[in-house]
Amino acid sequence: MKTLCIRGVTGSSAIHVGERLRSLEKYLPRGKLVIITDTNVQKLYGKEFPPCNLISIGTGEAVKNLDTVQAIYTQLIEFEADRSTYVLGIGGGIVCDVSGFAASTYLRGLKYGFVPTTLLSQVDASVGGKNGVNFAGYKNMVGVFNQPEFVICDLRLLRTLPERELACGFAEIIKHAAIADAQLFSYLEEIYPKAFALDEEVIEKLVYESVVIKSTIVNRDEREKGERRKLNFGHTIGHAIEKITTLSHGEAVGVGMGVAAALSVRMGLLTEQEARRLEALLGRFRLPTHIDFDREKAVDALRRDKKRAGDEIHFVLLEGIGRAVVQVVPIQELESVVYASL
Ligand SMILES: NC(=O)c1ccc[n+]([C@@H]2O[C@H](COP(=O)([O-])OP(=O)(O)OC[C@H]3O[C@@H](n4cnc5c(N)ncnc54)[C@H](O)[C@@H]3O)[C@@H](O)[C@H]2O)c1
User: Fold this and answer.
1) Which of 29-38, 265-274, 279-288, 290-299 has the lowest mean pLDDT?
2) 21-29: Cβ within 8 A, 24+ apart
3) pTM to 2 decimals?
4) Whose C-alpha lies nearest to ligand 1, atom 6?
């Protein structure tokens, strides 16, 4: 097991990669515990949860909203949760986002931790203290910055993940490599069959290296005023695609990274060969790179991006594999890339 730390304004977070769900109790304070999970994870791993009050939410992006958060508040009141109650989110990125937001706002904030159970949530959603829900058709529109006290990444839990969900996690690992670590990118190009087979050594290295990249960036810029924006590589277009298709978050980010790479080439920052390397790697991890969909709707969704400022948007480009740069790009330029490259 390896441990990494994030020291944020709102508290510190210890991320334990390779720890086990069954060792959870040593991280929990005494007192009342409320676990928030989803129905799938409860079915698979509920028997391994410590004694607690349990809240189970539904699954899918459609439950990541204020109605679900309200239902959680109601159950917390029924359980007589007070300021000393500890909240633990056990599940994928949706459980992490919803439970982290509910814990951070109920009674102005309860202490909380995460056991992320998808690859995507282990390498991304559980790390960094951004917790939020969708609102009025906008992704992650309402939320907080607040660090979980601990994150336990039990790699054994990944064995029950469907292949499509695994691929989504690899999309975020590829993103981390593409923006910050050329060596990790080359390693992914070599070991992808072992990664997909969840070879213990390989998956532990990939999760750990990924969390190192994310936590290093978060430690430098917790509130996303500058460098943290790089973590949005592939996400501006990805969120627009996620909104108008049936692709999952990770798949949409994969397509978004392809478009961002195409724009990087067009702006003379990235070579075509490097863009092709990225596309090939996404393909090896069985992620869609080209999809057909309504471009008008994609452009409309882009125009409504919450990160937009006037006619411009902070957009993450690559100036090489392993090197990201944030530039203010006119929305019009983005629109023409969406029309040209999808
Ligand atoms: N807050 C952040 O910093 C951040 C970062 C990245 C992504 N996100 C958010 O995370 C969400 C996506 O997360 P996700 O991909 O984990 O999706 P998810 O939470 O929907 O999980 C995917 C599916 O896998 C199931 N599942 C979970 N663990 C399992 C296991 N061990 N075995 C079998 N099935 C399991 C879930 O029930 C669900 O059906 C999006 O809403 C995205 O916006 C947040």
Assistant:
1) 290-299
2) 21/45, 21/48, 21/90, 21/115, 21/152, 21/154, 21/156, 21/157, 22/48, 23/152, 24/50, 24/88, 24/115, 24/152, 25/50, 27/113, 27/149, 27/150, 27/152, 28/86, 28/88, 28/113, 29/86, 29/111
3) 0.96
4) 125
